Amino acid sequence: MIVLLVSLFLCAWIDWKTERVSVPLLLLGGMAAVLLHLFAQEESVFYLMTGMSVGIALLLYSLVTHESIGYGDGCLFVMTGLFLGIWENLVLLLLASVLAGIGSAVLLFFRKKKKKERIPFVPFVFTAYVLLLL
């Protein structure tokens, strides 16, 4: 839980500042998840693979839509899936999407962003994870 929280915080901070997702940080987080699962032996390989499927689906969607969702966001959900499994990862994606929609509406209302401008998504993923922990 703490490893994922720290990973998401660092990724959110980098995404907020640079509008890029740190792939090395995602790889490090993913390796940490695999190692934690290997040592704890609480979850099966099937759990890890199905958890990653949410991110893989996002990567495929990103490829088909020419990055309407960034590749980094898909990679992020591959990493979170290793920690959370498929169902919690889907809940995380749904809650983060709702928060991003609300955040976008607020930014549009106050004219801080235009309709076609992109916003960083990972800060909403971090916020959604914190809310799920609470």
Supply the key terms.
134 residues; mainly alpha
Question: Structural class given helices, strands, pairing?
Answer: mainly alpha
- What is the overall shape? globular
Rg is 15 Å
Helical content class: over 70%
Number of helices, counting only DSSP H or I runs of 4 residues or more = 5
Taken together, the total number of domains comes to 1
Q: What are the low-pLDDT stretches, counting only 5+ consecutive residues below 50?
A: none
- Say how many strands there are: 0
Average pLDDT, all residues: 92
The major β-sheet equals: none
- Strand and helix order: HHHHH
> What is the distance, rounded to the nearest whole angstrom, between the alpha carbons of the first and last residues?
12 Å
Strand content: under 5%
